[in-house]
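Hi X.,

You mentioned you wanted examples for the new student's onboarding notes, showing what a folding record looks like when two proteins sit in one file. Here is a clean example. The first protein comes first, with its sequence line followed by its structure tokens.
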Amino acid sequence: MSDTGLDISRSGFDASPAVGAGGVGDYLALMKPRVMSLVVFTGFVGLVAAPGAMHPVLALAALICIAVGAGAAGALNMWYDADIDAKMQRTA
């Protein structure tokens, strides 16, 4: 990681959650569904291309776990970069 030189304590960024913030759609958007769908598709292609057979329930469970992991990674990334994104013109 690179050092951005940002001091979070003096950045003016308010990390406290807003009252009544977020509906289900907001939380789904936080998981970056377009990126998540690419990861799930890649996992599906891997399951199809792999030699041998896999039980369909196990394959579905694997794809669900991949989707949850990708969504969680997207949400954590957005949380981690919130202070930097608040300072960028493109994302502010």
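Then the second protein repeats the pattern, sequence line and then tokens:
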Amino acid sequence: MATNSNGLLGTRLFERLAAPHPPVWQAEESRLAEVVESIKHHLVELLNSHPGNCACAPELGLLDFNDATIGVLDLELSVQQAIRQCIERFEPRVQHVDVESLPSAGDPLQLRFQVHATVALGKASAHTTIDLLLNNKRYQCLN
């Protein structure tokens, strides 16, 4: 896990390098918001990747679930399990990941998921929830 000089888990390396000013000590609440936002950006990139597209980590990403032989219930369960396994394997800033399927908001072509996870902040940890939408073969964060 990546920690900074304060021992806190933080944003990704390129996010820190792109910051216009050096990091300063922040209150835990604003630090948590910054880390959760960074995790959301990473999850969107991670879940929209497909295995085999990254030479240094060939298993990175999710399979394409456009298989017509899978039933709707089986599809939701398969995607739910794949999201959880992918996050647990490739997002080291979160622990205790649980993914649940949410009812679609009137569009049967959309799949909605809610990710519950624990984010470690130094010696403390905080629980967070991230809403995901699979729409037109792309994952996006809703919150």
